[in-house]
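User: Design a sequence. Structure:
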């Protein structure tokens, strides 16, 4: 059942069924408990990870500081393509924020698939493009001067392609990802809740009106 979720959303959903079947045949679904570390920055390359169920906190450390929480990945997100293309170490740390199911496609399986059909190399490359788009979205979000709109845009980014309009994220983590203080996050979520856009809970935030929240994030009145 978990693999079927990967067929419906994210990178794999846009690939041919025959390729999806090959990924399923070579991949292994693994269950990770809340708080488990899937990979860490600096680990050797070891293939792809696709989130089928749950949520993953993404940490980065591109400079001399960190790791810093940057994003909450929802089902349909894939990571690990960098090591396949460069042979270099992992650039992200992934931690399960809730019990999660992740599909692991080993590096040697990726190499066999690429050797069997050169078009598969292009397919794996699409993951990198998707993740670059995600980085650009994060940059665009952080350039929003108004902290309330920035928080709304961050919530929408973390929802990504998820079918479930619920984010398993604390207000502290949301503040870090949106570059806003916890006080501002708390006040903003309260205002958004009064407007019926979100419903904050313990370590989770439900988005009740995506269209209205999207309009708010860009400074437009809901239509």
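Assistant: Done.
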């Amino acid at each position: 059942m978990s693999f079927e979720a990967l067929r419906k959303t994210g990178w794999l959903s846009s690939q041919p069924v025959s390729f999806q079947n090959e990924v399923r045949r070579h991949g292994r679904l693994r269950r990770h408990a809340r708080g488990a570390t899937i990979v860490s920055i600096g680990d050797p390359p070891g293939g792809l990870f696709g989130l089928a169920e749950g949520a993953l906190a993404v940490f980065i450390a591109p400079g001399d500081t960190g790791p810093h929480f940057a994003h909450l990945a929802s089902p349909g997100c894939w990571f690990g393509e960098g090591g396949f293309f460069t042979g270099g170490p992992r650039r992200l740390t992934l931690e399960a924020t809730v019990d999660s199911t992740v599909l692991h496609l080993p590096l040697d399986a990726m190499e066999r698939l690429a050797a069997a059909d050169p078009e598969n190399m292009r397919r794996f490359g699409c993951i990198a493009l998707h993740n670059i788009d995600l980085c650009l979205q994060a940059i665009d979000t952080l350039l929003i001067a108004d902290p309330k709109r920035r928080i709304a845009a961050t919530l929408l980014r973390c929802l990504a392609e998820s079918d479930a309009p619920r984010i398993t994220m604390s207000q502290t983590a949301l503040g870090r990802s949106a570059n806003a203080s916890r006080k501002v996050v708390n006040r903003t979520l309260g205002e958004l809740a009064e407007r019926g856009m979100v419903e904050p809970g313990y370590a989770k935030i439900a988005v009740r009106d995506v269209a209205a929240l999207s309009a708010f994030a860009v400074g437009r009145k809901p239509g």
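The CA atoms of residues 74 and 160 lie 7 Å apart. The chain has a mean pLDDT of 92.
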